[in-house]
Predict the 3D structure of the following.
Amino acid sequence: MPLTFWQVDAFTDRPFAGNPAAVCVLPAPRDERWMQDLARENNLSETAYLVRRDDGGFDLRWFTPALEVDLCGHATLASAHVLWEQGFLPPAEQARFHSKSGLLTARKDRDWIELDFPAHTPAPIEAPAEVIEALGATPVEVVRNRFDLLAQLESEAVVRELAPDLRVLKQAAMRGVIVTARATTQPYDFVSRFFAPAAGVDEDPVTGSSFCLLTPYWTPKLGKDELLSYQASARGGIVRSRLRGDRVLIAGKAVTVLKMELVE
């Protein structure tokens, strides 16, 4: 029987912007090889797979074209959008996802979707030589968590114009590299970009999970409770985030662009 799944542009309110993710609501679990093959076929930065649990929540897994990842924001936002839009959940009901990063939740906030994710405390480090070489820019500061490295650069212009050497960056021992700077473009507080060639994604258009690190990094620096930022990829995306203790609330919009059938 054909499997229907959807492609959703996340962290945007218009088609062909933000970050596209495929969302598959499965009637039963599938094996990892099948999920990886479909993710490779989709060739999007993430394909999300959901299976309903007896408690009303959903098991959620994410695959890039190259591998399974432990945490993904935009495909979680896209998953919540599909569950409400396609009638898998009532719009007023919270979406609950059981993942490799624990329980994640999502709720509707008018035309925004707000995710509840873990906060990752920034740990200052000395900038690795290969990262400086790959970026071609000297960071103001470098921090990291267990997933990613974050490099604050001199200005928004440097972030936007950056053309890193992805072959060198692929050798770095981390999931991805975030570059960021204070924003000069209104109304944003900061801008960022995200590179993850080792995970099969040279540059991710909008990376929800990066805000698990970006939000606790920028909140004390900017002295603001709620942050509005722009991920300055070619597609671009807008993210609203708030730090709440050991959690980060990450909000964005989403729009469905494709409905597809897999013929097996």
Q: What stands out?
A: The first strand starts at residue 3 and ends at 10.
